[in-house]
Amino acid sequence: MLFFPLVTTLPVAALAAILESLWGYPAVLLEAIGHPVMWIGTLIDRLDTALNLPEYSERKRRWMGILALVVIVLVPLTVVSLVLQIGYAVLPPPVMIVVQGVLTTALVAQKSLWTHVRAVGTALRREGLAAGRQAVAQIVGRDTRVLDEAGVVRAALESLAENFSDGVVAPLVWAALFGLPGAVFYKAVNTADSMIGHLTPRHAAFGMAAATVDDMINLPASRLAALCLIWAAPAERRAQARAAVRRDAPGHRSPNAGWPEAAMAGALGLRLAGPRQYGGTRVDDVWMGDGTPNATVDDLDRGLVLYRRACALLSVLLLAAAVLSMIAL
Question: In which compartments does the protein localize (predicted)?
Fold first, then answer.
């Protein structure tokens, strides 16, 4: 059972957004059984080891990557389908909407993202630059040892903006369309992209399918994330946020990340993205926004407030859509 009407899926997404903002993923569950992303990650790692062999040609690696992505998607979807079939056989549909909503919270990173980004500001204030670099290294892939305080804050804000799109908005959009299976499908592809969708000698060919599909399925969410950030911005900054998105987002090397990053930059009066280092290699990305690059810890606080307002706005939109779907029934 993988397909549901919007009168079911919209309440699932709205419920997941609200509940996850309250409790996140419980630490007791993480310690006891791990996290669904960890389970998917284990599957990806095993497929990477078994199918991405160094003696394979580049063409064969691409085909093996397509096969791996199919398995990465089908395995969790099959498990979810069996769980839902059993659930709907023994529980009434309204109860199963709640069950789907609760289970979907595990695939949304609303609260954990806020916690990790806030930790960067706390570290900078209490322990200084070295601690801030260490904290931001938990959420970004760039070289943090070369960052000054402004660079640490910018990295945290960029991560906040990008992960608002692919860690919060995207799974909720797919849940709004297809319920729990939609969120599982999205998270499987997104996790695959994060693990094997890199332009490295090992994964450039094998991870091409994961990276390509992830770019495609994130297109709607990245645009919606930018809109939420613009609407959540202070009234006097909304025009600048819109202008930054129109002007700068298309120039980002990612077809999706530039949208929320540009909106965040414009809303805060900052410049984000720009040149940075990965593995000792300088990457000359374009700047998002036309404000100052000298971001401070206070700017990080403002970014977190903006993020919470955007999350609340998204929850309201989902809840309104859910209510309208039930009224129209």
Answer: Cell membrane
